[in-house]
Specification:
By secondary structure, the protein is of the alpha+beta class. The chain has 31 helices and 31 strands. Among the domains are: 71 residues, no CATH class; 77 residues, no CATH class; 74 residues, no CATH class. Helices cover 60% and strands 10% of the residues. The strands form ten sheets. Strands 25, 26, 27, 28 and 29 form a five-stranded antiparallel beta sheet that branches. The chain starts with 10 loop residues before the first helix and ends in a 17-residue tail after the last helix.
Length: 1207
C-alpha cells in the first residue's frame, strides 16, 4: 500500500474518504455518517451532512464528527485529522503509515482485554490511555516513547508506528508484515523460552527484535549453551541448524558440511568448532565465516583451520564423506593422499605447514595460498613450494608416476652421492643449510640455486650439472673427462686438501681438489702451503692458473728436500750475523727508551705543582668567604632587637582594645535592657487605647533576630545562591509575633498619607451574614477608621455599629510604627553585640599569632648562633688544609729540579753510548739511579703532603654541610616568623573590619531609636487630638525618656568603637614594622646562604685540584719506575752482547760445539732482559742454532735442488 507520509489529502482524496465514512462509518463503529453540531451554539444535537459539506467545513477549520461507537462521537477538526482517521478507521485513500502499521494501531488501541491499549505515562506517572489517532499525533509531533499493554504484559515500550507493527506481528494479531517469513518463524520458535537481552534479563520476541535493531545482541538457550544473535537472520540460521533442522539458509552442500563435522565431533564427545578460541557449534562456525573470521574444525583428532566455508567443503572432500571431492583437481588430491598415507606411518604427521603438523587438507591450503610446506618422506620433512615440487618429490621418492620429468644423467649423479652418503649414515646434500636428499639438490639446481654435496669428507658447493660432473671426477667414481692428465693428477692427489705435508689453500683456508678447481676456473688464486725455510715458517706457493699446478708442486718438493739437512758453519754464520750485529743497536734503543721515560717525568710533576697551587688558592678564597659569612650572620642577629621590640609593642594594644570592647558591650547590653522597657511602655499604652492596632499585636520581651550580614558576607551569600534580600532571611521580614489569645481579623487595606505611614490595619468584624467587606480608603491622617461595605448580592447588609469614645486609631498607628522601629533597633543592637564578639575573637587570634612569631624568632636566633659556631669551625678546617698545602708545593718544586738533573744525565749517556765501554756506561748509570732515588723521595713526600691536604678538605666539606643545615634552619625560621606576623596582621585587619561593622550597627540602631522618638511624640499628639486619657500620654512620655537614654548609650558605643579603631590601627603599624624587620633579617640570611654556597664551591674546587695533583704524582712515579727498570738492566745486557759477539767471532767447524752453547746462553739472557723486539731477535737467532744442532749433515755428493722457495 502506498503511503502519504510526504503529502496531505487532495480535495478528491478527502471527499472519497468522507464518502466512505458517510456510507460505512468508522471500522467496527456500527454507525455510518458524517455529522455537525446542530441548534444554537451546537446545543441541538448532531446533524448528518454529506461529504461535500463536510469538506467545506474542514477546509474552513470547522469540525465534523463521526461515531466511534453507537454512543460515542469523534471530533475531526481539520483535513490532517481526517487523513489520520482515514488511515486507521477508513478506506486509507492516502494513508500516512503502511498498512501493517495502520492495522497494528487499530488492533493495539483496543487489544483483547479490557485493560489493553496504548498509554502515555504522562507527568509524574499519571497514565493516560490514547486511541490510535491520538497515538499517531503524538508520534508526528514529538519523539516520545509510549507503552502498550497487551494481555498479561503491561510493559511494551514503542517509539513509533514501526515498533507498533512489530509488536502486533510478534505478540498481537500474529500476522507477519515485518520480516522475511523464515526469520519471523525463528522468532516464534524461540518465543516460548524467551530471549536474554543485553542487560541480562529475559525478554519477549518483540523486546529481542528491538534490541537487535538497535545494533546490540541477544542470547537464546540452545544445545546446552547461550547462543549469541546479532540480527534477525542470525536467529533464522540458529533455528535452521539447531531447531527445525531444515535448510533455509545456505547451499545444501555447505549446510551438509557444517552439520557433518558437528555430528562427527559430538559422536567423539568433542567440540566441533572454535572461533577465536571460543568453542561452539555449526551456528557459531557460520557466524565466524560470515564475519570473515577463521574457524577451527575438529576432524581426524585435531583442529583444522578454515578461513571460509569453501575451505570447509575442501576439508569435507578430503576427510569427510567425500561429497565435494569433485571440486578439487584429481592429480593434486592423488599426490596429497599418497604422501599422507605413507607419511603418517609410525605415528608421524605427513605434512608440516607453518611449523605445525598437518594432513593433506593443510597441504592443499598451503598450495592454494602459494605458501611453502614440508612433506614427510624417507625420515625427514622435504620442502615443497608448489605442485611441480610435489611431483618431483614423487618422482624421486614415490612410486615414480612422474619420473619422466627427471633428466637421467643428472639424476644418476645425484642418486650416486645420495646412496654413497646414506650408506655411511649421513645425508648427501645441503640446501640453505638444511640436510636433504637428491630431491632437494635437484630442486635447487632447477631454480639456479647453489647447494652442497658431501664428497671427500667435506661439503662442496654445486651450482650446475658441470659442477656435479667435476665433483664426481675428482671426489667420486668418475673418470677424468675434465682436465689434462698432468693437471688432473696434481688435483687428484689433493682430494682431501693435503698431500705429503703440503696443503692446498684458498683464502687462507684449506680446500680440496674440487674446491681448488672451482676457484681457478673462476679466476681466483689458490696456494700450496708448507712449513719450511731457515726458521720452519709457513711458506706459500701461489697458483694463478690450472697450467701452473705441476710447476708449483715441484717447487714445494724442492724446498722439502733442501730443508732435510743442516748448513755448513760459513752458511750458518752468514744467516746468524744480522741478528748478532743488531744486538748492540737494540741495547742503545733501550737506553733511548729510558731517556724518553725520563723526559716524560717533568711534565706531570709541573702539572701537579700547578694543581697544588690552585688548591691553595681555592682554600684561601674559601677562608675569606667564611669571614664574610660571619659578618653577615652578625648583621642578621642585629635585627633580633627591632623585631622583638615590635612584637612586644604589638601585644600591648590588644589589652586596650579588650577594655574598649568590654565597655562597648556593656553600653549595648544596657541599651538592650532599656529597649525592653520601651517595648513594655508601648504595650501598656496600646492596651490603654483599647486593644492592638493592625501592626501592634507584638509579644515583646524575647525576640529572635537574624544578624544583618556585612557586605562581604552578603556577597558570599549571593555566590552561594542565597540573596540577602530574601524575606526568609531578612530580620525585618522574618515574622510578626502574635500574642497568645489574640484574634486575627481580616485586614482592610488603607491608603494613609501621614509622615509615619499606615503601620497597621482597621479590624473588620465578622457579620452575621458572612458577607465579605471591601477595603476602606482613608485620605486623612485622622480618619474615622470605619468602612463602607460593598454588597455582592441584592441582600441589604447590616450597618456597622457607631464608634464609641475617643478615636485612637491614629495614635495606635504611631505606636505600632514605634514598636516596629524598636524591633528594628533591637535587631541592630544584637548584631552589634555579635560583631563586638568577633572583634574580640580576632584579637585573641592575632595575639596568638604574635606569640607564635616570638617563639619562632627565639628559635631562629638560636639557629643563627649555632650557624655562627659552625662557620668558625669551617674556617679552622680550611686554615688547617691551607697550612698543609705548602708541603706538596715545596716537594714538587724540588722533584721538578731533580727531574731536570736526571734528564740531563741520561741524555749525556745516550749521546756518548757508542764511544764508551760497557764498564764506563755501567758506572754512569749507577750515578744516574742515585739522582732518580732523590726524585722518588721528593715525589713520595709530595704525595703524603697532598694526602694531608685532602684530609683537611674532607673535614672542611663536612663543616660546610653542618653550616648549611644551621643556616638553612635559621632561614626557614625567619620565614616562619614572617608567616606568623603576616597572619597576625591579617587577623588585626579582620578585627578592625568587625569593629567598623559594630559601629555601623550601633549607628543603625541609633537611627531607628531616633525614629521611635518621633513616632512616640506623634502618638502623644494623636492622643491629645482625640481627647484621650492623660495616663496614656504619661506612659508615652516615659517611653520617650527611655529612648533618649538608649540614644545616649548607643552614642557611647560609637565613641568606644572610635577608640578601638585607633588602637587596632596602631597595632597594625607596629606589626608592619616587625614584618619589615624580619624580612630584612631573612634577606641577610639569604646572603649568608649564598656566600656559604660560594665557599662550598671553592672547597670542592680545591678537592678537585688536590685529586688532579695525586694523578700527576702517580703518573710521574710510573714513568720513573719504567726508566729505572730499563736503566738497571742495561749493564747486564751490554755484558751479554759482548760475550755473544766474541763467541760468534771465534765460531768455526771445529769450535761450533763450544761456541754455540755460549751464544745460546747470551741470547737467552738478552731475551729475558730486553723488550719485545729484543726477544723476537733472540728467538730467530736461537732457531738458527737449533737447526744446526738437530738436523743431520748433508750426505756425500748431495746437490742442492733448484729452484727453492726460500734459501
Amino acid at each position: 500500500m502506498e503511503t502519504g507520509k510526504t503529502g496531505v489529502f487532495t480535495r478528491e482524496q478527502a471527499i472519497e474518504a468522507l464518502r466512505n465514512f458517510s456510507q460505512k462509518g468508522e471500522k467496527s463503529a456500527g454507525k455510518p455518517g458524517v455529522y455537525k453540531k446542530g441548534g444554537f451554539l451546537g446545543l441541538g444535537g448532531y446533524k448528518q451532512i454529506n461529504e461535500n459539506e463536510a469538506f467545506d467545513r474542514l477546509s474552513k477549520g470547522d469540525s465534523v464528527y463521526t461515531y466511534k461507537t453507537p454512543q460515542d462521537v469523534r471530533e475531526v477538526g481539520n483535513l490532517q485529522d481526517l487523513q489520520l482517521l482515514d488511515t486507521i478507521k477508513g478506506a486509507r485513500v492516502n494513508p500516512v503509515v503502511t498498512e501493517g502499521e495502520a492495522n497494528a494501531l487499530e488492533f493495539l488501541e483496543r487489544g483483547a482485554d479490557s485493560n489493553d491499549g496504548i498509554y502515555d505515562k504522562g507527568f509524574m506517572g499519571r497514565e493516560k490511555k490514547l486511541d490510535a489517532i491520538e497515538t499517531l499525533k503524538v508520534f508526528q509531533k514529538e519523539s516520545k516513547v509510549l507503552n502498550v499493554k497487551l494481555g498479561n504484559d503491561d510493559d511494551n515500550p514503542v517509539a513509533g508506528t514501526r515498533d507498533m507493527e512489530e509488536l502486533n506481528a510478534l505478540q498481537g494479531q500474529g500476522v507477519n508484515t515485518i520480516l522475511p517469513q523464515p526469520e519471523f518463524d525463528a522468532f516464534k520458535t524461540f518465543e516460548p523460552q524467551g530471549f536474554y537481552l543485553g542487560t541480562g534479563e529475559k525478554g519477549k520476541a518483540y523486546d529481542a527484535l528491538q534490541v537487535l535493531q538497535a545494533g546490540q545482541s541477544v542470547q537464546v538457550d540452545s544445545k546446552g549453551r547461550r547462543a549469541t544473535v546479532s540480527e534477525p537472520h542470525d536467529l533464522q540460521e540458529l533455528d535452521s541448524l539447531e531447531k527445525k533442522g531444515q535448510n533455509t539458509i545456505l547451499p545444501q552442500e555447505q549446510y551438509d558440511a557444517l552439520k557433518l563435522f558437528e555430528k562427527n565431533a559430538e559422536s567423539q564427545k568433542q567440540t566441533p568448532y572454535q572461533t577465536g578460541g571460543q568453542k561452539g557449534f555449526a551456528y557459531e562456525a557460520l557466524q565466524g565465516y560470515q564475519a570473515g573470521k577463521a574457524v577451527d574444525v575438529f576432524s581426524k583428532g585435531r583442529l583444522a583451520r578454515t578461513n571460509n566455508i569453501t575451505d570447509l567443503l575442501e576439508l569435507e572432500a578430503l576427510e569427510g564423506e567425500g561429497k565435494n571431492l569433485s571440486m578439487l583437481p584429481q592429480d593434486t588430491v592423488s599426490l596429497l593422499k599418497g604422501f599422507e598415507s605413507s607419511g603418517e606411518q609410525g605415528g608421524q604427521s605427513a605434512f608440516m605447514v607453518d611449523g605445525k603438523p598437518g594432513r593433506a587438507y593443510e597441504a592443499l591450503q598451503a598450495l592454494q595460498a602459494g605458501k611453502p610446506f614440508s612433506v614427510r618422506s624417507y625420515g625427514r620433512y622435504a620442502p615443497v613450494s608448489n605442485l611441480d615440487d610435489l611431483k618431483l618429490l614423487e618422482a624421486f621418492e614415490g612410486p615414480g608416476q612422474y619420473s619422466s620429468l627427471l633428466p637421467q644423467d643428472v639424476t644418476g649423479l645425484l642418486r650416486y652421492f645420495e646412496s654413497t652418503n646414506e650408506q655411511q649414515g649421513s645425508r648427501g646434500f645441503k640446501v640453505d643449510g638444511k640436510e636433504g636428499r637428491a630431491y632437494e639438490a635437484y630442486a635447487a639446481m632447477r631454480k639456479g640455486q647453489a647447494f652442497q654435496a658431501k664428497a671427500g669428507g667435506a661439503w662442496n658447493s654445486v651450482l650446475t650439472k658441470e659442477d656435479l660432473v667435476e665433483l664426481n671426477a675428482l671426489l667420486g667414481n668418475g673418470a677424468n673427462t675434465i682436465l689434462p692428465d698432468d693437471q688432473f693428477a696434481v688435483l687428484k692427489n689433493f682430494s682431501d686438501g693435503t698431500y705429503q705435508g703440503i696443503t692446498l689453500t684458498s683464502g687462507g683456508s684449506r680446500t680440496n681438489s674440487y674446491g681448488a678447481l672451482q676457484k681457478l676456473q673462476a679466476g681466483e688464486r689458490v696456494s700450496f702451503q708448507l712449513n719450511g725455510g731457515d726458521f720452519g715458517d709457513v711458506l706459500q706457493v701461489p697458483v694463478n692458473r690450472l697450467e701452473d699446478l705441476p710447476q708449483a708442486l715441484a717447487l714445494c718438493r724442492n724446498q722439502q728436500d733442501y730443508d732435510k739437512y743442516r748448513w755448513s758453519v760459513p752458511e750458518f754464520k752468514d744467516k746468524v750475523s744480522p741478528y748478532v750485529n743488531q744486538t748492540p743497536l737494540l741495547v742503545q734503543k733501550a737506553l733511548q727508551q729510558a731517556a724518553q721515560e725520563v723526559r716524560g717525568i717533568s711534565s706531570p710533576v709541573s702539572d701537579g705543582m700547578k694543581n697544588a697551587q690552585k688548591t691553595q688558592q681555592c682554600l684561601q678564597t674559601a677562608s675569606s668567604s667564611t669571614k664574610d659569612i660571619l659578618q653577615t650572620i652578625d648583621q642578621a642577629l642585629a635585627f633580633e632587637r627591632p623585631v622583638q621590640q615590635a612584637l612586644n609593642e604589638a601585644q600591648g594594644p590588644p589589652q586596650m582594645v579588650y577594655g574598649h570592647v568590654k565597655q562597648a558591650q556593656s553600653y549595648v547590653e544596657r541599651a538592650v535592657q532599656q529597649s525592653h522597657s520601651v517595648e513594655q511602655y508601648l504595650n501598656d499604652a496600646e492596651k490603654s487605647m483599647g486593644g492592638s492596632s493592625s501592626g501592634g499585636g507584638h509579644v515583646h520581651g524575647h525576640y529572635s533576630y537574624t544578624p544583618v550580614p556585612t557586605e562581604d558576607e552578603a556577597k558570599q551569600n549571593e555566590h552561594d545562591g542565597h540573596s540577602s534580600h530574601n524575606t526568609s532571611s531578612n530580620p525585618y521580614h522574618s515574622y510578626t509575633p502574635v500574642p497568645s489569645g489574640t484574634t486575627t481579623e481580616t485586614p482592610v487595606e488603607h491608603d494613609d498619607h501621614s509622615r509615619h505611614g499606615s503601620g497597621g490595619y482597621t479590624p473588620v468584624p465578622t457579620t452575621p451574614t458572612g458577607q465579605d467587606h471591601g477595603s476602606h480608603n482613608s485620605h486623612g491622617s485622622h480618619g474615622s477608621g470605619g468602612y463602607t461595605p460593598v454588597p455582592t448580592t441584592p441582600i441589604t447588609p447590616t450597618p456597622p455599629p457607631e464608634p464609641v469614645g475617643p478615636d485612637y486609631s491614629a495614635a495606635k498607628r504611631e505606636v505600632d510604627q514605634a514598636q516596629q522601629g524598636m524591633e528594628t533597633a533591637h535587631g541592630h543592637m544584637h548584631n552589634a553585640l555579635g560583631k563586638l564578639g568577633n572583634v574580640e575573637s580576632h584579637l585573641y587570634q592575632a595575639a596568638g599569632n604574635l606569640q607564635q612569631a616570638q617563639g619562632a624568632l627565639n628559635q631562629t636566633v638560636r639557629e643563627m648562633a649555632r650557624a655562627s659556631g659552625d662557620v668558625r669551625d669551617l674556617g679552622q678546617a680550611i686554615d688547617r688544609a691551607g697550612t698543609a698545602s705548602d708541603t706538596p708545593i715545596d716537594a714538587l718544586q724540588s722533584a721538578l729540579q731533580g727531574a731536570s738533573r736526571f734528564e740531563a744525565a741520561v741524555s749525556q749517556i745516550v749521546a756518548s753510548f757508542a764511544d764508551k765501554s760497557p764498564v764506563i756506561i755501567e758506572s754512569e748509570i749507577v750515578q744516574v739511579l742515585n739522582i732518580s732515588k732523590d726524585v722518588r723521595n721528593q715525589l713520595s713526600q709530595a704525595q703524603k703532603g697532598n694526602s694531608d691536604v685532602k684530609g683537611g678538605i674532607n673535614g672542611a666539606q663536612g663543616e660546610v654541610r653542618d653550616t648549611a643545615a644551621s643556616v638553612g634552619n635559621a632561614l626557614n625560621g625567619a620565614k616562619g616568623v614572617a608567616g606568623n606576623i603576616g597572619q597576625a596582621l591579617e587577623t588585626a585587619k579582620l578585627s578592625r573590619g568587625c569593629a567598623t561593622d559594630a559601629g555601623n550597627c550601633s549607628e543603625a540602631a541609633t537611627n531607628s531609636v531616633h525614629n521611635v522618638e518621633g513616632d512616640v511624640r506623634s502618638a502623644q499628639d494623636a492622643v491629645r487630638r482625640a481627647g484621650g486619657d492623660s495616663g496614656i500620654i504619661s506612659k508615652l512620655e516615659c517611653t520617650f525618656r527611655e529612648t533618649r537614654d538608649i540614644h545616649q548609650n548607643l552614642h557611647e558605643v560609637g565613641e568606644s568603637m572610635n577608640k578601638v579603631d585607633h588602637c587596632i590601627n596602631g597595632m597594625g603599624g607596629t606589626i608592619s614594622n616587625a614584618a619589615g624587620a624580619i624580612d630584612r633579617m631573612g634577606s641577610v640570611l639569604g646572603q649568608a646562604s649564598s656566600s656559604l654556597n660560594g665557599a662550598g664551591n671553592g672547597i670542592q674546587q680545591a678537592a678537585d685540584s688536590a685529586g688532579k695533583t695525586d694523578q700527576k704524582i702517580s703518573e710521574a712515579l710510573a714513568r720513573l719506575d719504567k726508566a729505572e727498570a730499563i736503566l738497571s738492566r742495561i749493564p747486564t745486557m751490554l755484558k751479554e752482547v759482548q760475550k755473544l759477539q766474541q763467541a760468534y767471532e771465534s765460531l768455526s767447524e771445529g769450535t761450533f760445539s763450544q761456541d754455540a752453547p755460549v751464544m745460546k746462553g747470551s741470547l737467552k739472557a738478552i731475551a729475558e732482559l730486553g723488550d719485545d723486539e729484543m726477544k723476537a731477535l733472540a728467538a730467530r737467532a736461537l732457531k738458527l742454532i737449533s737447526v744446526m744442532e738437530t738436523r743431520p749433515p748433508r750426505p756425500s755428493g748431495w746437490t742442492a735442488p733448484s729452484p727453492l722457495i726460500q734459501k
